[in-house]
# Entry
Amino acid sequence: MSTKSATNHQNRFVIIMAGGRGERFWPLSREKLPKQLLALLGKKSFLQEAIERVLPLVPVKNIFVITNETQLPEVRRQLPKIPKDNLVAEPMGRDTCAAVTLGAALVGARSTTSVMAVLPADHVIPEPKKFQQILGDSFEVAGQGQAIVTIGIKPTDPATGYGYIQTGAELPTPPGAGKTKTIFYKAERFVEKPNFETALQYVNSGQYRWNAGMFVWSFITVTNGLEQHQPEMFAACQRWFKAASQPAKLAKVLARDYPNLKKISIDYALMEKAQNVVVADGAFEWDDLGAWPALARHIKQDPEGNAVVAEFIHVDGARNIIYDARTKNRTPIAVVGLRDSILVQTDDAVLLAHKSQAQKVKELVKRLAEDAKFKKLV
# Structure
């Protein structure tokens, strides 16, 4: 068991949550190759970029990836430098509280004095150095006392697809922490996705941050929180902690436990109940790419506002997203009078949707899965 300082890089860990299905990015995103494993904006997948962003802060041996059985082979292929035992598959999806609890058990088995960050695998962060500064400062603060640190993103618009965190008083750096540049606030409350008018009030007040699902805490802090607010999950954490050093044994315990776990997010399970939550001011560019329209913010657009990754020609086309993912026999995509639409072509499917209906792509994937003729496309 480690006795090193909690702020020592060797005692820092990162858990990457990489089990999502990314259905709204169909037809590119599939069950075995979801959004986080795709290279939509470059040569590297979102998961690979998430790993690269944290490498200056933690040793590669201290990075864990929580995924699922279907995606595990591709995760291993994409991350050859991550130790095999650090790539762990959940037997089934039980929302983020179960995945966080599993991550805590894995990290705690290495060091009970550890400090760990829990980060999503599919975010776009164009300014990695700013992110690293804030994450490093969050490690420092979480390593002292009993603070749960969440990184809140400064909202740039009244988005209704994100949860919000109301911030309170600015907090001093705790005694024992290294020098930090990040501003930290007391978290007053978590708010679920608001309507537009409410979101506009939040943005104008300057007191709210987007909830990006990024958390930093010590092993002791998160397990204490689970013990207080989610005793059944805490009991599971204890069982997994004991088995974590033996991957085969852990897999058997997880297979036995997971079907009986409550399906609940870490926000509902812990963050909204805890009184020791601190918000790090996430002053960096960020996007979680929830659906196809978000991609347009990161793709060069033509004079008519078409965001294009394809051989494309049009007459009176405007504000479209045109994405050709075909690897062979690419042909031009030509449109006439098409506006505010999404057109995605892969080797085996084509999606055409109005941008305002992008969220319903998830419903389309469900219908595909229910039809024997199209199930193979999921």
